[in-house]
């Protein structure tokens, strides 16, 4: 894509990769648009990239349609365990949490870790205790339940887990990348992880460099898809390195998704902004829900971006039963 923003503010968000059933596409698109606009509102009024990505991801966490915050997938024990990271490209600083069960907006807890903790990454009950110590109230785990249990829209149910390889399952994780008026970059990623995951399983999403990376001097990236594959190629940092080496955001997005397939036969997608303010996105999953707003007012949202010729995409499409 590579639309230029004249280095002004820009926000690009995703609402997960893999397959989005036809009947769900309009709602996914609407959810992504709402989140991008929430982040854009911050940027428009001079807010920081960090404020923008947190605001956008909170909207997606609150929307039970996405696998983050409320409405996240269950693990094998029927529990929701959430992971999140936020990273500030100014000083390469980040805050992350994993396996939390009583936090309504994990992205805000990750921000609390970023700004008010001597550590960068806390997990499980320790992360929840930190939240309480810093004045954040915990929720009841039941508050995180969405509609997955009814099976009304869940891609996990729709795909019939067990019928698709674990390597290509998952979806609806959320992420946001932004550049503010001062040219600073930030990223936020939040997820309930993959459906039916082993208790305590953590994927790429909250891992710095894997699910997210931001460096004002090089670019910003968020990843989604099969965490087990995305971790192996340190997806987000690898994408940022490509931008540091001179590739545009779109060139880096295409290259990293090709690498994901060629090196580890992985499925996923990335969203990027380069230091020139250009945005890029690519995926080899059948769908990637996304929305963006650029400095010139251009806004777009959808559930599919990459061409079928993207490495691995044909295989992903072949695994989808289009009637669901
Ligand atoms: N990457 C996430 C994970 O593996 C899932 C996703 O992005 O859909 O936990």
SSE map:
Elements lengths: L9 E9 L6 H20 L4 H14 L19 E7 L4 E8 L5 H11 L4 E3 H10 L21 H5 L14 E6 L5 E7 L20 E4 L3 E7 L1 H6 L2 H10 L4 H16 L3 E6 L5 E5 L3 E7 L5 E4 L10 H6 L6
Helix proportion: 25-40%
How many individual β-strands?
12
Major sheet attributes: 8 strands, mixed
Number of helices: 9
**What structural class do the secondary elements suggest?**
alpha+beta
**Unreliable segments of 5+ consecutive residues:** 148-170
Order of helices and strands: EHHEEHEHHEEEEHHHEEEEH
Strand residues, percent: 15-25%
Mean pLDDT: 89
Question: How large is the radius of gyration?
Answer: 17 Å
Whole-number tally of structural domains: 1
Oligomer: single chain
> What gross morphology would you assign?
globular
According to CATH, the homologous superfamily is: (Glycosyl)asparaginase
* CATH-assigned fold name: Glutamine Phosphoribosylpyrophosphate, subunit 1, domain 1
Q: Which ions and ligands are bound to the chains?
A: aspartic acid
Distance between the termini: 29 Å
CATH class assignment = Alpha Beta
Give the name of the CATH architecture: 4-Layer Sandwich
Physical arrangement of strands within the biggest beta sheet: 4-3-2-6-5-1-11-12
Walk me through this protein's architecture.
This protein is an alpha+beta fold and 324 residues long. The protein has one domain (10-76, 151-323): (Glycosyl)asparaginase (Glutamine Phosphoribosylpyrophosphate, subunit 1, domain 1). The chain has nine helices and twelve strands. The strands form two sheets. It has an eight-stranded mixed beta sheet with strand order 4-3-2-6-5-1-11-12. Strand 11 (287-293) and strand 12 (299-302) form a beta hairpin. Helix 7 (235-244) packs across helix 8. It is globular. Aspartic acid binds at residues 16-17, 170-171, 173, 191, 193-194, 203-205, 224-225, 227, 230.
